[in-house]
Amino acid sequence: MEASFEITLQMVSAVFAGISAQVLAAYLRVPSIVLLLLLGIVLGSDGIGLLHPHLLGTGLEVIVSLATAIILFEGGLNLNLRELDRVSVSLQLLVTLGTLVTLLGGSMAAHWLGEFPWNIAFLYASIVVVTGPTVVGPLLRQINVDRQVATLLEGEGVLIDPVGAILAFVVLDTIVNGDADPINAIIGLLIRLGIGGAIGAFGGYLMSFIFKRANFLSFELKNLVVLAILWGLFCWAQMIRSESGVMTTVVAGAVFANSSVPEERLLRSFKGQLTILSVSVLFILLAADLSIASVFALGWGSLFTVLVLMFVVRPINILLCTWNSDLNWRQKLFLSWVAPRGIVSASVASLFAILLTKRGINGGDSIKALVFLTIIMTVVCQGLTAGWVARFLQITSKQATGAVIVGCNPLSLLIARFFQERGENVVMIDTDPECFSQAEAQNLRVISSSALDAAVLEEAGLASMGTFLAMTSNGEVNFVLAQRAAEEFKPPRVLAVFPRDPQATASSNSKVNQAFATDLPIKTWNEYLNDGRVKLGTITLDETEFANQLERIQEKIRTGVLVPLLVEREGRLQIMSANQEWEVGDRIIYLLYDPRPNLLKRLSGVSQSTPLSLEKLPELEEVPLAKLAQLSTSDAPGT
């Protein structure tokens, strides 16, 4: 078999295996890295022997470098500076003080428990400083954790990767050259970070300039231009100072993402696909090159080293870095639990094993084995249990409370009143100052501005709110507002009043739900509220009468005389969506049209300013079957 075909077969097998693992992980809803590691080991020399990455020679290092550049650039694209600003102090401490804590704690554990020499122990600790956005990102999207926690973990994963990678190479350079002066090491680290940051900032601005001004280029060609510039910047930084390229890629992505570039969504999609491909191939190849015998040869001391890193060093790290933050103990506990290592640790460890072997320094294979043991234990233990831990600690995004409501009108004020009475934070956004007096009379916070401005939504605190509701009089505007809110801030519940069939909309944007009912005439119901032609009712869905209750409610919705507003389930109040699946025990709060003439209402003492009271209305109450039988008997002939 020709050598070129053998290399081709290796690459094709790695791609096929990597994508297969991704598909299976998506189906099983488990972190993809778990299956990538397992499949790579199975296909490697210690398994069935299908993959032999050493056949790629130096090409493996090239693949690792270029793929890592794509992965870190995509991580930089996901950095939202507005969200990071809310956790900036904690994030800064995690990247600086946290790096130092992990470096010292990990090296002491590796030396005293794993019995590694101090130089090799420091090298191991510098490699596992990083947490890996390629593992953290998909994991957080899968479990839908609280946005503040997610932002901190994502920011840490992206920003600490270049810092940790450069730190590892500085430690390696110190070991290889025998220079133990810490001042020189710190200077080398800062120089690499500075060079990489400067080139990355320039490159990010250049990419955004091309995307904004080069209108003669197609979207597809623009994406490829960005890829070419990215690799060019990476090589440029590497030529000036080795290992500064990793910082370049992150900064370039962050600058580009925060430059308000049109069609940025298309680039994110393209780079996201490249990242999935890169991660899949790299993990398969690097895991296949791992010697299982070297992992078992580490002994119990190395196992204890990883356990100390997970359950002692990480909690101390989080405790010190979030001491003065507004995070509660549940959020801090979750941050202490989740710190999986990823592709950067694996790729750096693999490269170091090769470099140390070339220089005749012992410990390269042991470091690689210990790093992969760390990856396996953190990913399997933390990745598979993170969802359960988040639910146990009640910090999933579904538990987020509060609402941002766009459109200040009688119906939205009624909705806001219910949330406010529950003690939840409510913020109204509208451009009409005439509506503000009613909201302020109810002690509601109102922002006089356009909700199309992301800064306004940030001011309203949407990043930490549980619900976004757009209910202005313009349905098309409502849908656009909800779309942007879902993409920019990702609140757990996004609803809007718009004149479309929710089933037809689900295929184009499943993140936006139609509020209340299909084709709700919001202007008409606001007029009903102003004129006092409505009643505010509540009904609890009973198990014995569930079908009949559901039928009566749906019939009144179809005839346009009833609007379901809110549903209370398991003690939590949520805005009703048009495609809501109702369950036994749900408490439905609704508006019922009351067509009595206004004059009759005035005579009966009902005024427009009288606030609606919540009551059980006879229109939706069913006569109990026992009472119905009694009535039938009493009405029978001869009684």
Automatic annotation (TrEMBL):
Subcellular locations according to the entry: Cell membrane
Any Pfam family the entry gives: Na_H_Exchanger
SUPFAM superfamilies given in the database record: NAD(P)-binding Rossmann-fold domains
Residues in Cation/H+ exchanger transmembrane domain copies: 12-390
Protein topology in the membrane: Multi-pass membrane protein
GO CC entries: plasma membrane
Natural source organism: Amazonocrinis nigriterrae CENA67
GO molecular function list: antiporter activity
Record's protein name: Cation:proton antiporter
